[in-house]
Design a protein that fits this description.
There is one protein chain. The chain has three helices and eight strands, in the order ββββαββββαα. About 20% of the residues lie in helices and about 30% in strands. Strands 1, 2, 3, 4, 5, 6, 7 and 8 form an eight-stranded mixed sheet that branches. It is an alpha+beta fold.
């Protein structure tokens, strides 16, 4: 997806839990283990972007986890699910992302990669594997994945 702005974009990442495992993918461009996610497009809200990105990259149907407040219907108003975490980071010297981090569950662990973004590897990590030095994980990715497992593990 092209950038909406040359200096900053909003992105989503989703930590998907199936039973006692959390899904991470080795990013094709950055060559590091990350959650599933991507840019929020102009015609969608962050919740919609999270669902779309997961579907495009993994083929999975997910349920975002959290609470959405219900209010009387009002034209042009929609309450959204809040992200679990929020961060801002540089992608390069001139571009940065504000990332909304969501947790989700799925009833199926069969990943089907899309045609556009093919991951070098996709793996359902156990809590033990998240701590294993065999996998090089950024501190934030490890933390978010561990928190998702703690909260959503069946």
């Amino acid at each position: 997806m092209p950038h909406i702005h040359d200096k900053i974009d909003f992105t989503v990442e989703v930590f998907i839990v199936y039973k006692d495992r959390v899904l991470l993918r080795k990013h094709d461009k950055y060559k590091m283990w990350l959650s599933v996610g991507g840019h929020v497009e102009l015609d969608e809200d962050p919740n919609e972007a999270a669902l779309r990105e997961v579907r495009e990259e993994t083929g999975l149907n997910i349920k975002l986890v959290g609470e959405v407040k219900k209010f009387a219907p009002l034209a042009g108003y929609k309450e959204l699910m809040s992200p679990r975490f929020l961060n801002r980071h540089y992608i390069n010297e001139t571009h940065e992302h504000v990332t909304l981090v969501y947790f989700a569950t799925t009833d199926d662990n069969k990943v089907i990669q899309g045609e556009k973004e093919i991951s070098d590897d996709i793996h359902w990590f156990t809590a033990t594997e998240l701590d294993n030095s065999q996998y090089t994980l950024r501190e934030s990715v490890r933390y978010y994945a561990q928190e998702a497992l703690k909260e959503l593990n069946d």
